[in-house]
């Protein structure tokens, strides 16, 4: 009899152990450190506006951060990457696709595609990046207290530092050509800031806008003879056409200051700006917290990059006959890449 009781006790202990092991995650929604709950891999839906050096870098940084946090692609996390190729209709299609697929989290890269996603998806966490002002773009209620299901990182450009850099490099410049895409919200915001800085530091300016890529060369040519230097913010369409812009303005000996390192590689003279890979990494760390249930996305303030990178194009400086200040030369010469 004693032997029978002992066997029953052992059996009950085994059953209780198995039951407790099965109760480790009762709702199936939290993510274990470094992985997903149970055997189900996490799915991240990525909505990217277009193939673009800055956006590609942001995605790389995002994935690298999650990898560092233990989310290993192909093992416990998968990425469903959709690229709108710069087409607004595709942005809407991607948003509707993810609304149906219901991934665990969505990363939206750049304002137009983020706006499409946020408009239709209200029950899935959404992180945005490469967006200048999420509140201004109507993606969140407030940048400090986003609310709902959206947060992320801003690529707010240090416009004041960029314009001061332009004045330092081209002290003889009196009038600046502000070139941007009229339909891009990010660009409109940055140009507003640029005009305010120009007024503050005593620079005149003229605005030159494009509405499609076919206008880039013509508008660039229209600046020659009217301005002494050119400023282009982090503008998606112009970033793709930077080589065309540079061929015109650099050929006319006009210094070209841009919003980030990608356009510097393609013909801009220099910038002090956002590092999009670092920005993406910052967004990925936010994603890890959301996936693990360590933070509620609507309570996470929009984050900003605090350190900016200085980069210049040595070949362009040579074409212009400009000797750059030592503090710029201490940055990275991207023409050597």
Your description of this structure?
The chain is of the alpha/beta class and 337 residues long. The chain is 43% helix and 19% strand. It has helices at residues 2-22, 53-68, 88-101, 111-120, 159-169, 185-201, 216-223, 236-240, 242-251, 261-265, 276-291, 314-320, 326-329; strands spanning 42-48, 77-83, 105-109, 126-131, 150-154, 175-181, 204-210, 229-232, 256-258, 270-273, 303-304, 309-312, 332-333. The strands form three sheets. Strands 2-1-3-4-5-11 form a six-stranded parallel beta sheet, sandwiched between helices. The chain has a four-stranded parallel beta sheet with strand order 7-6-8-9, with helices on both faces. It has a three-stranded mixed beta sheet with strand order 10-12-13. α2 (53-68) packs across α11 (276-291) and α5 packs across α6. It is elongated, with a radius of gyration of 25 Å. The termini are far apart.
Provide keyphrases for this structure.
337 residues, alpha/beta, 6-stranded parallel sheet, 4-stranded parallel sheet, elongated
**What is the quaternary state of this protein?**
single chain
In percent, how helical is the residue content?
40-55%
Run of helices and strands: HEHEHEHEEHEHEHEHHEHEHEEHHE
Poorly predicted runs of 5 or more residues: 1-37
Précis, in short:
Helices cover 43% and strands 19% of the residues. The chain has 337 residues and is an alpha/beta fold. Helix 2 (53-68) crosses helix 11 (276-291).
């Amino acid at each position: 009899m004693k032997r029978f009781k002992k066997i029953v006790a052992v059996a009950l202990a085994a059953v209780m152990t198995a039951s407790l092991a099965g109760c480790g995650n009762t709702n199936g929604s939290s993510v274990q450190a470094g992985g997903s709950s149970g055997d189900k891999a996490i799915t991240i839906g990525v909505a990217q506006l277009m193939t673009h050096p800055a956006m590609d870098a942001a995605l790389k940084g995002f994935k690298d951060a999650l990898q560092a946090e233990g989310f290993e692609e192909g093992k416990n996390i998968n990425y469903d990457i959709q690229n709108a190729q710069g087409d607004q209709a595709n942005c809407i299609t991607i948003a509707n696709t993810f609304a149906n697929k219901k991934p665990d989290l969505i990363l939206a890269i750049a304002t137009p595609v983020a706006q499409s996603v946020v408009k239709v998806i209200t029950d899935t966490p959404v992180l945005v990046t490469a967006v200048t002002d999420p509140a201004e773009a109507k993606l969140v209620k407030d940048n400090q207290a986003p609310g709902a299901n959206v947060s992320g990182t801003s690529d707010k450009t240090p416009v004041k530092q960029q314009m001061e850099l332009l004045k330092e490099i081209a002290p003889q410049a009196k009038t600046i050509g502000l070139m941007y895409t009229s339909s891009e919200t990010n660009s409109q915001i940055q140009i507003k800031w640029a005009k305010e800085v120009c007024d503050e530091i005593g620079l005149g300016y003229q605005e030159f806008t494009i509405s499609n890529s076919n206008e880039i060369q013509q508008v660039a040519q229209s600046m020659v003879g009217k301005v002494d230097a050119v400023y282009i913010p982090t503008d998606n369409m112009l970033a793709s056409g930077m080589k065309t812009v540079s061929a015109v303005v650099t050929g006319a000996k006009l210094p070209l200051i841009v919003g980030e390192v990608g356009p510097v590689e393609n013909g801009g003279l220099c910038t002090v700006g956002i590092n999009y890979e670092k920005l993406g990494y910052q967004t990925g760390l936010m994603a890890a917290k959301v996936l693990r249930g360590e933070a509620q996305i609507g309570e996470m303030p929009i984050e900003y990059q605090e350190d900016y990178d200085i980069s210049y194009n040595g070949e362009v400086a040579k074409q212009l006959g400009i000797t750059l200040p030592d503090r710029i030369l201490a940055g990275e010469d991207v023409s050597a890449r």
